[in-house]
């Protein structure tokens, strides 16, 4: 694609002798497109006067025809009343009949004038594949050599009546402002159109807000008279959009989409509102899909009214099949009567299916994961067969879906199922025009026959298929196909057509076909962003289902939620979808609220209310969370992973606990693994489960249940190397496969491993005056390799050294723990006052150089909490009393006055 600008007129809207006023052209696929249309106020008003005169003439002609025809009807009625008949009346040769037949011609002419005026003289050029492969580099003197090109077109002749009328109104608006016609004027006029308002409603945009922004843009537009170059480029881009989407004419929708391509203030405005060319194109396609679906249903029902149905037993010419009818449904009949939901997005699978049968295969199996739309393929085929838009091999055929569960149900006698199947196949053979569809084909494997215990029904079906008297389409889940069908005789006879999970755009188109039903059922409306968000979030966070089913499920749940919370006729937004999916997967997916934003920005302060010192650890974790919530984290890894090193009792585990409570919402999102329990040969099985076992491993089960969580690996160095390798995979790929082959997502977890490795080095280094940075470097280079592979260490986002606690820090921790006790007592109406001497005594009693502050909780429990509990139970202290802790051994009670 190449835009060419005339150098002679320097982009000015003048009558240039070189380009003849075209100024700009578009070279695409060996075609030369240009816009050339007289656009002045007098010309527009002159055209409008002519249109008004035309309407007056049309109205007079209509009145003339109406008067004559009413007169004819009156005289015809009198003629019949007097004993005549209609045919004799119209066969008479008199002046009235001559006028009548003349008005019939006038009526035809009037219809041409009215309806023909709304259709342009030319249609959009249809580009074939060969055209798209061609590309010609155009020089700047194209205006003198353009006649040598293969094809050229004045695109203004392909704009429909409504689009040209829009452009004229936009030009008059620009003239009124004293500006050149710009895309902003065209967009402003588009906002007046009902269909544009519908599109913007689907995009959850406020038309009035856009108008305000456009009016601000008008102030800065170039002053002058005529059509700006950017407007001309917009017209060319609109024509190209119609060309690429194979539209017959350039309509308002093409102009709306093209606005997203033209660099400038309008495109910037749309981007500010979160709209790009893909979203605009998709929402236009959505409306056209709905129109096509409505037309499709109407056409199918019309065809159904003109073709025989039950009289020949659900087929046109076939023999009756009463036994088959008991266990099946005729998909072609359902399609003709409009009872199948229209499907889109399965064109690739249908082409593959046709190719298999055209290659001589008698059977095909559709293989895919549950929920990817395997049944949609057969229903799409049924619709094409009903519309007679299939290859010759499929014409005049019935597509009949056999229910395996119905076939098996109630067949208790030996060989009953085999007898049913053979009777069905006998009717299929006699009918001669049935294509058999068998869903869950793998269910036939293992069902014994009466004649031989070693022969199952699948083999019977395979033997019949080898006789080549019918065509069959089987459907199987991928896992069951590989386990049961692939290596069987039947599996070898069937050609495989893989049905894959649809790509994002295809999935959105499928959702667009489902929205009319959901909107009618729940009396709400979906925005395009809701569909887009459903596909995006289910793709990323829902791993136990597949598109499009998981996105459809999410939309239906959201529709129900919106109906309950907002009421009828509400618009379902992306935030609504995110809220519902967030609740299902237990992960915060909605936009960051102002309250949460404040919490994120002040996360270090929040943590330091409960953690003393350890600034490096707190800061690193807080920064990781801010990156994750701002969507700056790579999606294939956990939110963050840290290795905390340091002596016992310095706060490594406590930082993880506090973080889980503050950010993840509580300790229910805290998963702790004591890695000393995973030092044996069965460590991996304990983590991911045993193959075939119903219960999974502890790690995979916990993360599946709580995907948004903090995973603490306590004493990580005590786990075996195989366990370390599992977490190496988690930190690299963000996922882990359990023993049963199910993928577990770790991308919404924070992984913190703690270790006492190198404690002596840390303590000795600090005593020698080394900095934490020097100690960490020595640990990584010399000590940690004794416990961990270098590859594993490199996967951590941060290796953080916790320094031993000083006595002043232990005192501060003591105050935090006593504050917690004070809050508990406050709920009972009791006040706890701790003297400084008592706090220091508790701190000294609860500190140990080898255990850090870990004994501190036990000292407070044994010396303080136990004594207060005795006082309360003895009723020596009651509400409004004050407990004064003078020292570790002296507790005084001040009674309330």
Automatic annotation (TrEMBL):
* Chaperone recorded as keyword: yes
Instruction: Name the GO terms of the biological process aspect.
Output: cellular response to heat
| PANTHER family linked | ATP-DEPENDENT CLP PROTEASE, HEAT SHOCK PROTEIN 104
Record flagged with keyword Cell membrane: no
Residue spans crossing the bilayer: 56-80, 95-112
Q: What is this protein called?
A: Clp R domain-containing protein
What region holds the Clp ATPase C-terminal domain? 805-893
Q: Which SMART domains does its entry note?
A: AAA (SM00382), ClpB_D2-small (SM01086)
Q: Which UniProt keywords apply?
A: ATP-binding, Chaperone, Membrane, Nucleotide-binding, Repeat, Transmembrane, Transmembrane helix
> Which InterPro entries does the entry mention?
AAA+_ATPase, ATPase_AAA_core, Clp_ATPase_C, Clp_N_dom_sf, ClpA/B, ClpA/ClpB_AAA_lid, ClpA_ClpB, P-loop_NTPase
| GO cellular component terms given for this protein | cytoplasm
Enumerate the spans annotated as AAA+ ATPase domain.
Answer: 360-521, 638-806
State any single GO MF term.
ATP hydrolysis activity
Q: Note the superkingdom of the native organism.
A: Bacteria
Taxonomic source organism:
Candidatus Kuenenbacteria bacterium CG10_big_fil_rev_8_21_14_0_10_36_11
Which Pfam families did the record assign?
AAA, AAA_2, AAA_lid_9, ClpB_D2-small
